[in-house]
Design a protein that fits this description.
The chain is of the alpha+beta class. The chain is built from 17 helices and nine strands. Bound molecules: heme C (5 copies). The site of one heme C (HEC) has 19 residues, from strand 1, strand 2, helix 16 and strand 9.
Length: 476
């Protein structure tokens, strides 16, 4: 009891006496208000009602609110020291500090002030926080607010996963994922503010493993069997001659008897590899775990010296790395859009001209749109006056489509251009499957990872003008 009385006399009373000044009182009110908002958020978050998974909320709850809290705390001693100095200078320091007494008007005035200031601060801090959270939770926030996400945002709405939230694939479910994402989100926002983000932004090894993301929605054991693909291409001649390829992909999977087959069956869970670049394009070492537990090692004949680095077990993302934001090659994009009728294949040389214009380099997206439009108009006006006067609407549409394809794939300010983000599903435009299946990854006994075309697919028709098989199937 004596200790407590001493504490009251020597510490509490002087603290309250000097603390009764505007600066300290505002500090106390700020600290209380931000603490209340923070506690409210934690409660909502722990109970999981209306809690948000948005990674950038960290900026509010990990930086701004604690910042206000600490700022308030700092104001309290600053006010105390200031009042002490002020009273000392006036020679008004009391020999005995007044008792804590609720009937003392000066003390009551201080309490009233704190209560009112806390209330006002609470309303301000609470409203600002609520609005910030609501804003960061809009579906567009991740993709649009932050201009550095523009490339992924552009490719996303046209992908199969347009309806899947960014967080589904980029954040691991549960507390660790949440905390990790918030720390990362905050770091990234600071990088954007300081202009110290990399260009282009690459995924590297930052993505959670597929079992924590893709497999929430996809069954790894699905038996997909064969998949029928028809690819339409246009030529660089005046008529934009159309040809088709038919590929039957042996996707396979696991059948009802547990037997693994095809492309999916061959890799899942039993292939690991070492990549020597952050984009995982150069793979000198591959290991395959056999049924008896032994590991067959395949080493690239290009590899020099010992191969070291972390081993990664292949999962969905190693092949489907562009599931939600596939950037196209100019050829691929133009072929796809022309197959939908725009640009119209009736415009002479539109395929050839389109490719030349899209591949040219421009300082900005605005310049690209302007130059692509004027060049295509000039081309038809000077070379094909009849087309120019007769098919003006189609020429306009061609210019618009070319500019749109360019806009979806090239972002000069992020140094994202054709080919910056390789697609691993295939082997024609990027190394893809041939990072390993190139015929030169061998075991010690010179057995190589297969390069035989028919293991992966049947090429039913390759670049034929009118494949008979499509007609037989009634597909033309
Ligand atoms: C269906 C899953 C999925 C969804 C949905 C998704 N992403 Fe991705 N994202 C990926 C994968 C997989 C990669 C890794 C690509 C690689 O390794 O090449 C990636 C990579 C990225 C990268 C790194 C740069 C790049 O293009 O490789 C950024 C930035 C990104 N995503 C942003 C977003 C944004 C913003 C959204 C929402 C608008 C989003 N992602 C939605 C799966 C997804
Ligand atoms: C929130 C659920 C969800 C998540 C998470 C998800 N997907 Fe999908 N995915 C779908 C749906 C739904 C479809 C079917 C879309 C359709 O048929 O229009 C689909 C289609 C696909 C397809 C076939 C279409 C195509 O683009 O070739 C592939 C491949 C695919 N997903 C891979 C992935 C990969 C890889 C991941 C993880 C990086 C992933 N998905 C994460 C829901 C999801
Ligand atoms: C070794 C590479 C590879 C791996 C690993 C892989 N896939 Fe595939 N997957 C393919 C190929 C190739 C196709 C067929 C090509 C296409 O769809 O354009 C395909 C097709 C698909 C399809 C489309 C099926 C359809 O009917 O349209 C889905 C969905 C899919 N994969 C999901 C997954 C999921 C989920 C995983 C992880 C559990 C996975 N894939 C792992 C290569 C792979
Ligand atoms: C990281 C290296 C790697 C990548 C990338 C890779 N594979 Fe494989 N794949 C292997 C290994 C290793 C084997 C097993 C080879 C063996 O047993 O001889 C294999 C086996 C296969 C098999 C079975 C071969 C057989 O003889 O039955 C198919 C089919 C296959 N892969 C298709 C693909 C496709 C399609 C892609 C691209 C979408 C791809 N792979 C990408 C490493 C890879
Ligand atoms: C390791 C598996 C694998 C091997 C081996 C392989 N391919 Fe492919 N191939 C693929 C995949 C995956 C695709 C892309 C499917 C898609 O676009 O969805 C593809 C696509 C194609 C296409 C379609 C055209 C296009 O523009 O996409 C052609 C043509 C082709 N391959 C030819 C060949 C030839 C010729 C060989 C033999 C020298 C071969 N492939 C060997 C996996 C393989």
């Amino acid at each position: 009891m004596a200790d407590f009385d001493n504490f009251k006399k020597n510490w509490l009373r002087p603290f309250l006496f000097y603390g009764n000044n505007r600066i300290s009182l505002i500090g106390g009110a700020l600290t209380t208000a931000s603490a209340l908002v923070l506690i409210g958020f934690w409660v909502v978050d722990i109970l999981g009602h209306g809690g948000s998974e948005n990674p950038y909320l960290g900026i509010i709850f990990d930086l701004i609110l604690p910042g206000v809290f600490i700022f308030g705390l700092v104001l309290i001693p600053v006010g105390i020291l200031w009042r002490r100095r002020h009273l000392k200078a006036l020679g008004q320091v009391p020999s005995i500090y007044p008792e804590v007494n609720f009937s003392d008007p000066a003390f009551r005035h201080g309490i009233d002030f704190v209560v009112i200031a806390t209330f006002i601060n609470f309303v301000i801090v609470g409203t600002a926080t609520y609005r910030g959270v609501a804003y960061m939770d809009t579906p567009n926030f991740c993709g649009q607010t932050c201009h550095v996400m523009a490339p992924e945002w552009g490719a996303y709405p046209v992908s199969t996963h347009a309806g899947v939230a960014c967080t589904e694939c980029h954040i691991t479910a549960g507390l660790t994922g949440f905390v990790h994402a918030k720390v990362n989100g905050t770091k990234q926002l600071l990088m954007v503010a300081a202009h110290s983000y990399p260009t282009p932004i690459m995924a590297g090894d930052k993505l959670p493993p597929a079992r924590e993301t893709c497999l929430k929605c996809h069954n790894p054991n699905a038996n997909i069997g064969d998949k029928f693909l028809v690819k339409t291409s246009y030529g660089d001649d005046e008529k934009n001659s159309v040809t088709k390829s038919i590929v039957i992909m042996h996707v396979g999977g696991r059948d009802q008897f547990g037997h693994l087959s095809g492309i999916h069956g061959a890799h899942m869970g039993h292939i690991e590899y070492i990549a020597t670049d952050s984009n995982r394009q150069t793979i000198p070492w591959v290991g395959k775990t056999n049924d008896d537990g032994s590991v067959t090692e395949f080493v690239s004949s290009d590899a020099k010296g010992p191969i070291t680095g972390p081993k990664r077990v292949m999962d969905c993302i190693d092949c489907h790395n562009r599931a939600a934001h596939s950037f196209d090659t100019p050829e691929e994009a133009l072929n796809k859009d022309m197959a939908q009728g725009r640009p119209s294949a009736s415009l002479p040389f539109v395929h050839k001209q389109g490719l030349v214009l899209m591949k040219a380099s421009y300082a900005s997206r605005e310049e690209a749109t302007a130059k692509i439009t004027s060049s295509i108009e000039n081309f038809y006006r000077s070379q094909y006056p009849a087309v120019w006067s007769g098919q003006r609407a189609q020429i306009d549409q061609a210019a618009k489509t070319l500019a749109t394809i360019y806009d979806r794939n090239v972002f000069p300010f992020m140094k994202v251009t054709w080919g910056s983000h390789p697609n691993n599903l295939g082997h024609n435009d990027y190394p893809g499957c041939f990072r390993c299946h190139d015929g030169s990854h061998n075991t010690k006994t010179a057995k190589s990872i297969t390069n035989d075309c028919s293991t992966c697919h049947n090429l039913v028709a390759t670049d034929e003008p009118n494949p008979k098989q499509l007609a037989d199937l009634g597909m033309q």
